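Example 3.
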Amino acid sequence: MLKSELAGASTAERLSVPRSLVPGRRRGVWGDRLYQAAVRGAVLVFVVVVVGIAALLVYAARPSLAAFGWRFLVTADWDPVAEHFGALPFVYGTLVSALLGMLIAVPLGVGCAIYLAELAPSWVRPPVAFLVELLAAIPSVVYGLWGIFVLAPLLRSWVQPGLARWLGFLPLFQGTPYGVGMLAAGIILAIMVLPFIVAVSREVLLAVPTQQREAALALGATRWETTRLAVLRYARSGLMGAILLGLGRALGETMAVTMVIGNRPEIALSLFAPGYTMASVIANEFTEATSDLYLAALIEIGLLLFVVTVAVNALARLLVWSVGGAVKEVRE
Amino acid sequence: MRKLAIVAVASAALALVVGSSLLAPPGAAAELLINGAGATFPYPIYSKWFDEYAKAEPSLRFNYQSIGSGGGIRQVTERTVDFGASDGPMTDEQLAKAPGELFHIPTVLGAVVATYNLPGNPALRFTPDILADVFLGKIEKWNAPRIQAANPGVALPGDPIIVVHRSDGSGTTYIFTDYLAKVSHEWEQRVGRGTSVKWPVGLGGKGNEGVAGQIKSTPGALGYVELAYAIKNQLPVGVVRNRAGQFIEPTIESTTAAAAGAARNMPADFRVSLTNPLGEKAYPIASFTWLLVYKEQTDEAKGKAIVNFLHWATTEGQKYAADLLYAPLPPQVAQQVRAKVGQITFHGKPLLVAR
């Protein structure tokens, strides 16, 4: 009797529910409303901020919008003295440098994450993960200085002559090796986005259920096949998220890129040539832009950067959705 | 439980509101705060001045934001600050937009020097046409006949000249391009003068340190930086031929000499470009930097403080300039400036009390 009572009590304790959910007790209606209002408000703040930024940019860019119209997007002339402004070289520079950075960072970053999540002995993981994440803590101006004093001379004296020698038949690797330029910007960006890609990818891979791996191994899959079929495929959309995060950072990075890209508003096919990005030109010229049209043109560049970022993100999101569909197919 | 939580949150919020209102700066009334904004180039000397001046006038506090000349001009035009600062003179168009008459008050001088990276870094001499044509991309090699002719006895390599310029908008660029526009008709036509221009050739580096860094790490590079930056970092600097035909080394003294040469023909509003000046000893790539102050002040106490400060800056204050590697105003110019400061008024009455 006593024993069963005790057992009953302990069961009740184990299954204990929050008292507020016990039937008959009055539920906190006001608390619930407050909670809903708070989270709705949080969302509203973001919507208002984003729409506000866009509206303000359009408003402040009016003189430039009126003066140049669509030509602003397709002309390559940037002459603050004569007040002729065209954004094409900056759009080109932003997209190419970010793309180059991602081309380098994605295989490296995902590879590193796979090693950390799948292969590395457990004592190796924390220090390596720590080192990679340390990269994220370095301020971008330090990357820039490193770019000027270490990376650029290295590129100029070794990498670029080598590339020109072996791959010089490609227009990508022709011209004077200055050291600074599009290639340097791409490499700096790759290093800067790497920790984001590694950190997020690693978490995503670790979240893949162990049963996935065990099932694949039980079917006789090799290490690589397990990773490829059971882990990477399962984690695809999460990995896309990691890459997107890196891409967003690459598109907006300003300081380090400005210091190594050469800041020349020209469109050149060669990766050795100097280029310019949207974020860089704003950072460079905004403080000393004295005329109204000049200022408006810089603000329109900001608007354009906003639009490009949104477009790239939307595009990537579409990609994630299509990949997500593929995952479902696999699961079926 | 839940009610308790709500009460706790509410009281915390209340505490925050009350607390923050109690934390408002105490004793703000006792101090007179004067706001200024503008050029970054003279920021070190201005903050030194504000510091030193505050020691003599403890009730006064200056707040100077070095946001760039463009921002300084905009803010003073909108009267969001009490004074502005600019490395380039305001245009007539900009002055017309201001709600009152703005005075340009020269404070100190700066100079821009050509610096380079060649094996052994020999002392180099430049003529105005060499500088213009290198930056136009018309002279491409270091051993070009004209450079060799200006530097007899210097072994110049046959390497290409890699031009490095400022990528950020800057008063330094304004002074340098203003000089090139004065000495080269083609430069004036094709490029012009400005805080940012469309450079015919070269790479852009951000800030003096960006330009210097790129020059240091690129053999064969040639660029321009502020004199103060070059002296501090012991960069090789080019000797430039001035209008009198003398090759002048850029120094604090030769920069001051550039203003001395202009003193005789100083326009009343001081909106004068000092590049390529007359004077045997004048270094030709120099310029004033200005404070922008309304002639008619709207606040008597602030106006008084500003004119007293300006008077001090153009007398006592000048002695701090050379230590911070700015060129002081020549005495005759400082006197002209003080006369101008004497014209600043409140309700039509001069604010400066004769000392």
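Residues 1-10, 328-332 of chain A have pLDDT under 50 and may be disordered. Residues 207 and 223 of chain A are 18 Å apart (CA to CA).
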